[in-house]
Amino acid sequence: MIENAFPRISPNNNKIAIVDSVGSHTYHTMNSRIDRLAAGLLKDQQDLQEERIAFLIPASLDYVTVLIGIWRAGGIAVPINTASAELELKHFIESAGVTRLIASPDSHDKVRELCGNLRIQLLTVDDLVASECNRLPNVSLERSAMILFTSGTTSKPKGVLTSHNAIRAQILTLLEAWKWSNQDVIPLFLPLHHVHGIINVLSCALWSGATVHMMPKLDLDTICSDVISDTYSVFMAVPTIYVKLLDHLNNLDIDFARAVGDGFGRMRLNVSGSAACPINVFEQWKEQTGQILLERYGMTEVGMAISNSYAGERRAGFVGVPLPGVTVCLFDEFDRQVTEENTPGEIRIKGDNLFKGYWNNPKATNEAFKRGWFCSGDIAVVEDSYFRIMGRSSIDIIKSGGYKLSALEIEGVILTHENVSEAAVFGVPDDTWGESVVVCICLKAGTKLEYTDLKNWCVDKMSAYKIPKRMRVLDSLPRNAMGKVTKSMLKEKL
After folding, report:
1. Domain region containing 79
2. No. of H helices and E strands in the chain?
3. Is the pTM here over 0.70, yes or no?
4. Are residues 140 and 42 in the same domain?
């Protein structure tokens, strides 16, 4: 039964499960509301039979109610980014074959016309919550549970179809690896249309009986105040948020900033992911808080696959070792398994955590698998048993002058320049080199940097063939909801 699979919620548990803008909600209250929404979705049906239901709801008890309510009724949940533009919404809804859209009242004006044109039923949570709940269907672990869309950094977003069993496996491996307990308290400000927010934070917390403070958006002042008060035991964010926090602390009163840093230091765990954490950010966070960030690697299709150790060594620039129950190997361009360390290869993954396929896209699904291995498209090397990500084969691996260069490695060096706040490196076609290295940078306020100065600065910090051939200064870098730079957009601007 789904109740025993995901998430494990005790109906009689009066511990606080969710804190949102309305107030605090116990596991008992949440569980009852979930069941009644499931009953409202079903009406006279016995089972939704994997009906795709989308929802556009900010972080709140309502979000949790809808997500798990759809699962308990036997449907497939399709969480959508609340910041999506109309064309994006249209793509998600049409691609997933959605029949109903549940949206917060504030979002109805935004989607009413679109739903009318697509003949999609538009609902609120209050429309669906029944006065009571009778019998809910038994939903097997093999059933489909969720469609999430890929970030679309290199292509049009694809719908990733995941089973209840895969979700369960993704949760259980993190509960073991990161030592979740019912005493944990964690803030959730990450996007809830992405595995980082849905699985790593919300699902792990609810499964373990922890408390989640749900925030529709990141509020640095609230975070800092809560940190000083020892509200949280676990903190998970993307590198751009850690950068924002460091900048924020630098602008605060020295004593207050020190108190915030000490508060982070008292937590049992700080996690960084979704994009590579620059080594300088890793080191600055350690200096400011005493915390050694735990970096991990994952993607929409697999959840988390690799993680630095909870209790052991955490290396800057590395994502660690395969998680329990997950098998990870590197393969070269000839589909041969890489057995030597320091030799680049594509990350391929096996395990119960794997998705079922891309929704209504058998061609893309077939291309994603080879001999049972999921082909991630990410290139890595292994050094002393730890994986280091070099980047996406499609955009972060630059083939220049016979070398395979890691854009992430070059970015990491450039980010140590005292005037550079952000950097994005990629390759562009070049008749001589095959591809030439280009960097787009953002400068710190009040500073300047010419290309010749950067080039000269790089001479004793990286090999000559890695030094960018061109540089462009921008006010900001385009990023997706998870903080990853959309390099395809940068290429279009050159």
Report:
1. 2-201
2. 16, 26
3. yes
4. yes
